[in-house]
Amino acid sequence: MTTLATDILFSREIIHRRVGELALQISRDYQGRDLLVVGILKGAFIFMADLIRALGVPCRVDFVRLTSYGEGCVSSGTVRLTKDLETPIAGRDLLIVEDILDTGCTLSRLTDILGEREPASLKVCAFLDKPERRIVPFTADYIGFTIPDAFVVGYGLDLDEKYRYLPDVCVLRDIDGQGEG
Ligand code: IMP
After folding, report:
1. Is 154 in the pocket of ligand 1 (CB under 6 A)?
2. Is 168 exposed, middle or buried (0-12, 13-18, 19+ CB in 10 A)?
3. Ligand 1 centre from 142 Cα, in Å?
């Protein structure tokens, strides 16, 4: 069995500070608007909870869930909406909140789907961005941290549903075999 250790990449203090900065920027941009924050389940739930509580403007919240099928993601066409919004969005200012922007397949597909419903505006806030992994071109409007191509967990992000509860963002390290020989 593989044994994994978690090395902290971003501590809870650093995350807290960065979320505050993002919230300030978003609050300025959405002053006097009709803001609906849309979280992508499951990974974005912790980031979104922190972000909306740090906002200085009122908002409503809703959630979507998507799955990709087939072997990995080769295009946004492999991504399907499995839980839709419960709120009508025509004429509303939408801010999609995602845990991590990786290949770009999920956000590219979701912005296409929601864009067709004619919101007043549509922007994306990704807590993490891994630009080296992009398959479908996609740029988020707000980004917490840009990271290299490494698999990270914690602060909502999982590996097979594990590690979401960790308060820090961590990189996994295989420690099998260490201490031998
Ligand atoms: P994309 O469609 O490839 O951009 O996928 C984004 C989704 O892949 C995220 O919402 C995560 O669920 C998952 N993902 C991508 N990279 C990581 C990672 O490093 N850790 C945990 N989940 C990840």
Report:
1. no
2. middle
3. 17
| Ligand 1 binding pocket mutation candidate from 45, 99, 113, 163 (most atoms within 8 A of CB) | 99
Q: What is residue 127's predicted lDDT score, i.e. its pLDDT?
A: 98
pLDDT (tens digit, 9 = 90+) per residue, 108-149?
999 999 999 999 999 999 999 999 999 999 999 999 999 999
0.90 surpassed by pTM:
yes
Q: Is the C-beta atom of 129 inside 6 A of ligand 1?
A: no
Find the helix packing angle between 12-29 and 45-54, rounded to 10°. 60
Q: Which of 93, 99, 102, 129 is catalytic?
A: 102
Our answer to whether residue 160 is catalytic in this structure is: no
Confidence of residue 175 (pLDDT cuts 50, 70, 90): confident
- Tell me whether strands 4-10 and 169-174 are parallel, antiparallel or unpaired: antiparallel
Write the single-letter amino acid at 108. Answer: S
135 SS3 class: coil
Query: CA-CA distance, 52 to 44, in Å (whole number)?
Result: 12
In short, whether 140's Cβ falls inside 6 Å of ligand 1 is no
Mean pLDDT of the chain: 93
